[in-house]
Design brief:
Length: 670
């Protein structure tokens, strides 16, 4: 039986509110709000109340998006040392630095409209954590994309997408204050440190402690990259990222724990305690969209249970979306937000419909639910996840059936162990049991990952193809609820359109591409030769391994789209069909270039199309022009700024063709 639209009255307002947020991303003035407000008043006067409300909701979404859009930094602050103060909202450590995002609310000891700043502290002290207020002096810069290759992963682009409008490098001596920010929410948020310390000192082995820290606090920074990658490639990444699954398990645990209250007639009290516990958990873990969504839905369910009201899961989902987007409209563009809401919608609309076990067989239907819920969730999120992460785990169902079955026992055992441990009682036997179960999950994930073809890699789709796929899935869901032949026909048509557009949108890439990239300590030349990427660098040989790892990470999408499967360092002397190298002289079809760096001796009379002047060259640029007959001189980014500017002025004065690589990279025309 189909649920009428009246059962989900918040569906249309939610979609309209989302449309308003999207419209707010365009550069329209808030005065544009007057037009829909006027339309709403006219509709209300004509007694079209619902239409008037819908238009007002659109206006609210538009206005909310514009009001909470990132504010550009005042030009007077750029590259001028100034005092700033703000609350740390994210904190991450690398091997040699702390990377913070700080919500700045004070400039030169005067209150200002808050803005986000990415702060790098090149030391591990003082240790700054989330909710700490930090004061410092720094020169700020505006983050701008710094990509040298197409499809390159760029940290600045990531910052811009997340609303960061300024960056700063802060030396420890310039930090003026680090104090815990007062306030109830901040105090509760800081309890994640206590939970982490509790986990690390409890009777768990190190791998289990890392896993539990991710599943109970949302902090997976202790886990190794290999373990995170293992869970990602097997379709188990959602276990490490806090979501509705974890909230549901915590609610179930406390529901069982508080069952005596239910038996004694205090059902309302039990539900209230669970609601409070879930909100404390959400605050402690940082109020991520996926957790807040789950807690809001759980709260509505428990309140409805107390009031004995019938509920609609989709309506609760819409309410959660409206609540989150009203407070933070930018969450709409968060991958976690999108995957969380799509997954729940798919589970609600699909899982029950595809369960083949008769409803009268309660146990069998519940067991089969482990499979149908996983299938439904992947049906909804698979396309979006593949679009963002460019891979798809083929054996996700087998991986999830075991892992999701074991997770309740792991989390319950861990919570009990931690509660007793907090009171000084060590349950070693339960800690070992949790260790065993965590080890079983990782062993199972390793087994699945090792199967042939376990993951489809290098999936790159055009946004139009993604929307067509989501439309096809929506039609199938519609068919599951109504079983009409017209919907199957529409599905077939949409699939045909998808196939045709796939061919039309397919992009062809040249067999050879050549780029000179920008780095502060060395200069790199990248030569794409079919399915291989060749690398030349002025860096010392001991840095090559780290450099290749960096290139493999930053250029993974560039390589994936073009079918490149390996990166190799050019031998000092080599000859291929695409290029030849003799020391610092590299010859490409129709082009020759020489890299001049360090104390390298340049042979007089060399003819080249490009002479690339790099870090370490301290000679006379005009004398170099006499030695090397080059059509164009390229000034690399790794040259000292003052030396770079002096060379630039000399070349410009003499009218010698040159190009600076300090601002932009260089693609070699072939």
């Amino acid at each position: 039986m189909r649920a009428p639209l009246s059962r989900v009255p918040l569906l249309i307002p939610t979609l309209v509110f989302v449309a308003g947020i999207i419209a707010g991303q365009f550069d329209f003035s808030l005065l544009w709000c007057l037009a829909p407000v006027g339309i709403s008043l006219i509709l209300g006067w004509k007694r079209h109340v619902y239409a008037a409300v819908v238009v007002l909701v659109f206006t609210l979404g538009f206005g909310d998006s514009r009001l909470q859009a990132p504010v550009p930094v005042n030009d007077s602050l750029i590259r001028n040392e100034t005092t700033y103060s703000g609350v740390t909202i994210t904190s991450r450590e690398t091997e040699s630095a702390q990377l913070l995002v700080v919500n700045i609310d004070s400039v030169d000891n005067r209150k200002c409209r808050p803005f986000l700043m990415a702060v790098t502290i090149p030391m591990m002290t003082p240790c700054i954590d989330v909710t700490d207020r930090v004061g410092f002096r720094a020169e700020i810069t505006i983050p701008t994309p710094e990509t040298d290759l197409p499809d390159e992963i760029d940290y600045n682009s990531y910052l811009i997408e997340n609303g960061v409008v300024a960056t700063a490098l802060v030396e420890p001596d310039n930090i003026t204050a680090v104090t815990p920010e007062p306030g109830l929410l901040n105090s509760l948020r800081r309890h994640h440190r206590f939970v982490t310390r509790l986990i690390l000192t409890a009777p768990f082995d190190s791998k289990t402690a890392e896993f539990l820290n991710a599943t109970l606090t949302g902090d997976d920074s202790l886990m190794t990259t290999d373990v995170r990658q293992l869970f990602s490639t097997t379709g188990l990444a959602h276990i490490l990222a806090l979501s509705g699954l974890h909230v549901g398990l915590i609610a179930l645990f406390f529901s069982i724990l508080l069952f005596p209250l239910h038996l004694s007639g205090h059902r309302y009290l039990k539900n209230i305690v669970i609601i409070i516990t879930l909100w404390l958990f959400a605050i402690m873990t940082g109020l991520s969209p996926s957790v807040v969504r789950a807690v809001i839905m759980a709260t509505l369910f428990l309140i409805g249970n107390m009031l004995q009201r019938r509920q609609s899961a989709i309506n609760s989902l819409c309410f959660a979306a409206l609540a989150i987007l009203l407070v933070s409209p930018s969450s709409l563009y968060s991958i976690g937000f999108q995957l969380s809401f799509i997954a729940v919608a798919a589970i609600v609309l699909i899982a029950d419909r595809i369960n083949p076990v008769d409803r009268r067989n309660v146990i069998g239907r519940h067991i089969m639910g482990y499979a149908t819920v996983s299938i439904a969730a992947m049906a909804g999120t698979g396309v979006v996840s593949a679009y963002y992460f460019h891979s798809f785990p083929l054996y996700f169902l087998f991986a999830n059936i075991v892992a999701v079955f074991l997770l309740p026992f792991i989390m319950s055992g861990a919570i009990i162990t931690l509660i007793f441990h907090a009171f000084g009682i060590t349950l070693s036997w339960m800690g070992k049991a949790v260790d065993y179960l965590c080890g079983a999950v990782e062993w199972w994930a390793s087994l699945i990952s090792g199967l042939p073809g376990s993951t489809v890699e290098n999936i790159y789709m055009h946004p139009l193809s993604v929307w067509l796929m989501l439309g096809s899935i929506a039609i199938i869901i519609w068919w599951l609820h109504s079983r009409r032949a017209a919907q199957l026909a529409a599905f077939g048509i949409l699939c045909a359109v998808l196939i045709v557009t796939g061919f039309l949108l397919a992009k062809e890439y040249p067999e050879r591409e050549v780029y000179i990239t920008r780095h502060t300590r060395s200069t790199e030349l990248l030569v794409k030769d079919n399915h291989r990427l060749w690398l030349y660098s002025t860096a010392p040989e001991q840095d090559f391994e780290a450099m290749i790892d960096r290139c493999r990470y930053r250029y993974q999408d560039y390589m994936g789209r073009r079918g490149i499967d390996s990166i190799s360092v050019m031998p000092d002397c080599c000859h291929t069909t695409s290029f030849s190298r003799n020391g610092d002289v590299i010859t490409l079809p129709g082009k020759t270039m020489i890299f001049i760096h360090g104390n390298a001796v340049v042979t007089p009379g060399i003819k080249a199309d490009y002479a690339i002047v790099c870090r370490g060259f301290r000679g006379d640029i005009m004398a170099l022009k006499e030695i090397v007959s080059a059509d164009t001189i390229l000034l690399s980014r790794d040259i000292d700024v003052r030396r770079h500017n002096r060379y630039k002025a000399q070349l410009s004065e003499q009218g010698i063709p040159f190009r600076s690589l300090r601002v932009t990279s260089f693609q070699m025309p072939l």
